[in-house]
Design goal:
By secondary structure, the protein is an alpha/beta fold. It is built from eight helices and nine strands. Strand 7, helix 5 and strand 8 form a beta-alpha-beta unit. The chain is globular. Bound molecules: 1-O-phosphono-alpha-D-ribofuranose (R1P) and uracil. 1-O-phosphono-alpha-D-ribofuranose binds next to strand 5.
Length: about 240
């Protein structure tokens, strides 16, 4: 048991999927895991442990934004020994070729903030995922994307500290530099994984688009993003 996670010692698996939305954690656990057991509900941030194809997996909500993700990832790594942490998140598309419902594998996560910024100060640390996980997710993702008719993209993303941002010039600069999508947690996850020598990756589904202004409803963001969950699980145990 930690400050924010009520699970007992041994109730968290070494492989953890991290959706921001705790209800997505519940949906993914009910849909993909066998014998899923609720192991955390402190602050309503639901976490479940079960098995996928015989492998133990925890799916733990991480909340919105890097300070929240940082709380859960720190405790999962330092107190429960999590080794592989894969974010399964929603994101806003930033390029015309990246469509709503496409999946993005975040090969780098730029950020202007994050809790780790306090530590790095003037240093522009480059947060990146585990290459083995990225490669395995790409392989799994290609097959899933072809079968389901969705796009799969690998590239840089932007981990923002604000959902409602007042800097259209910043988004424009990021778009000109090829950034595929915006979300709010991956950079901190990658920095923590680097610090503690753990494996991390962010697998994202495009839920809305900054250029076309399309947006999926909350129910879809909670329950219809199975492609990225399958990609994440397959990559974790490749
Ligand atoms: O759907 P999740 O995983 O929460 O991810 C995205 O959605 C939230 C904003 O609506 C932020 O947490 C952002 O990163
Ligand atoms: O942070 C986010 C997440 C989803 N969609 C966005 O536009 N931003």
């Amino acid at each position: 048991m930690t400050f924010h996670i009520g699970a007992k010692s041994g109730e968290i698996a070494e492989t953890v999927l991290l959706p921001g939305d705790p209800y997505r954690a519940r949906w993914a656990a009910q849909t993909f895991l066998q014998d899923a057991v609720l192991v955390n509900e402190v602050r309503g941030m639901l976490g479940y442990t079960g098995t996928w194809r015989g492998h133990r997996v925890t799916i733990q909500g991480s909340g919105m934004g890097m300070p929240s993700l940082s709380v859960y990832a720190n405790e999962l790594i330092r107190d429960y020994g999590a080794q592989t942490l894969i974010r399964i998140g929603s994101a806003g598309g930033m390029q015309p070729q990246v469509k709503v419902r496409d999946v993005v594998l975040a090969m780098a996560a730029s950020t202007a903030g994050s809790p780790s910024r306090l530590m790095f100060r003037e240093m522009n640390f480059a947060p990146t995922p585990d290459f083995g996980l990225l490669r395995a997710a790409h392989e799994a993702g290609q097959a899933i994307a072809a079968a389901r008719g969705i796009g799969l993209h690998v590239g840089g993303i932007y981990s923002s500290d604000t959902f409602y941002d007042e800097r259209p010039d910043l988004n424009e600069a990021l778009q000109r530099h090829g950034v595929l999508a915006v979300e709010m947690e991956a950079a901190e996850l990658y920095m923590l994984a680097a610090r503690y020598r753990r494996r991390a990756l962010a697998v994202l589904t495009i839920s809305d688009h900054l250029l076309t202004h399309e947006a999926l409803p909350a129910e879809d963001r909670e329950r219809s993003f199975g492609d990225m969950v399958e990609i994440a699980l397959t990559a974790a145990f490749a």
